[in-house]
Amino acid sequence: MKRLFLGLLLATVTTVGASAQQVFLEMRNKAQAIVSNPSTAVMVRQLNQFKVDALNYMGMKMKEEMPDSSAAFLDRQAYAMHAFLTHYMQTLLAHRTAPQKVQVEYIRHYVDASISNPLFRDSDHELVLAYYADGNSLTRFSLDTDWQRALLAVSTEKK
Length: 159
Hints:
Elements: H1 2-16, H2 22-36, H3 42-65, H4 71-94, H5 100-115, H6 125-128, H7 130-133, H8 147-158
């Protein structure tokens, strides 16, 4: 038992000391693998394609606009995006039997949180709002989102 505990502790310490951008890259790589898998369900593929595109956009804009910022910033944004999307999907599933009007309000709440909390204030609205403009998209969110603030917005308003 003592060896197991020490092994788990060592694994945790090793993981915590991992390179700064590892979380961001791991999330992107996992999402890309899911998208590339032909047996993945359509909805799961759509959700993960959004993750890949949002993370790629975020990485590209960080290099352009904030080259001196820490890689930990990307990790925090990636975690927040993951949490935001998880909350979104849980909310949709929890209210799947609710009237259509109620479901639309929940979706609008998340979309508004994404659009009203830009990270880079990118003026290329065609790119940034590509998912929003796609009426068939499961994730009609802005690519230019400060995911930490958007997560806070949906979390505080839910209470």
